[in-house]
Amino acid sequence: MTALPANIDSLLVTYQPNVRYLTGFTGSCGCVLITRRRRYFFSDFRYRDQAAKEVKDFAVNLVRGGLLPGLCRFLRARRLKLGTLGVESSRLSHSDFLLLRRLLKGVSIRDAGGIIEKQRQVKNGQEVDRIRRASSIADAALEKLRRYKVTGRTEKEVAWLLESFMRQDGSGPLPFDIIVASGPRSAMPHGIAGDRVINKGEPVVIDMGATVDGYCCDITRTFATGSLSSRQQKIYRTVGEAQELAIQAAEPGAACAGVDKLAREHITAAGFGEAFGHSLGHGVGLEAHEGPLLAPGSVDTLASGMTITIEPGIYTGRTGVRIEDTVLVTGTGAEALTVFPRRLLILK
Ligand code: ZN
Ligand code: ZN
What we know:
Elements: E1 10-13, H1 16-23, E2 31-35, E3 39-43, H2 48-54, E4 59-62, H3 67-77, E5 84-87, H4 94-103, E6 108-111, H5 115-121, H6 125-145, H7 155-168, E7 179-182, E8 203-208, E9 211-212, E10 215-216, E11 219-224, H8 230-249, H9 256-269, E12 281-283, E13 290-294, E14 307-310, E15 313-316, E16 319-322, E17 325-329, E18 334-336
Parallel strand pairs: 1-5, 3-4, 5-6
Antiparallel strand pairs: 1-2, 2-3, 7-8, 8-11, 9-10, 12-13, 14-17, 15-16, 17-18
């Protein structure tokens, strides 16, 4: 149950992952209104049966002519007073805001974003179980890939192989396009699989996720197609050590900025500080990227039940290496949910 903060009397939730989190509704058109006394869910005719089946503990209302106009008509018809209405400002389009302001005369609207996102950071047992199952699917796909010859194939072909393995094993829609970045493209942290043909003796960064009942995992491995130079091997070792340090330090009460700092200092000490330009990690759940944030300056603190990634990387010149795992913060430390081997593996 969502407790409303003292500065609002009601909360309108329009961001679909938050709506799904609160209600279980998996459709693409729904919103939630929480008042101090009741919880309402709004959708339209297309989702009548689905809403009846999925949405529990909310009064379900099907409206016509758009969700927000329908919601406002519903409020007027019942003479429901909202008091100060909190909205998810960063998730609400400007036109929807103007619409609400016009239709809800006399209601003061203020930003109450982030309330549900904050709740979502700590997972319950069922959520952890889904992320665990998604992690197993992704692990298995990487394991299967090892039996295939990747040299001579394009990055896109390898991405498709991985996607088909995961879907065959029961993954839902993938949370993001698979990154397969080979050779010099490995130095692009977000090198979506392209038409480049993978050659022998290169690093290949693969970053992907599976979903189970909407819950994601996120894993990156850097493979090699043949032997790498000693500098490339040093980069790989350094990233692996940084990840290990961070996983060891992840525990309830640990500052996210502090965990990031440990990994970052290790990479800096090895001479690659400038080449680690992104954050150490992020929360994973209904979205592949959610809170908390593990980065310099983050004010987030780890808590038991959070599922996060730990993903240091070094991108320099024509070589990139990233190693990423989805990790559960337990009562005492951290447990990796993705468990595919972290040592440097050679693909054919
Ligand atoms: Zn990733
Ligand atoms: Zn990630």
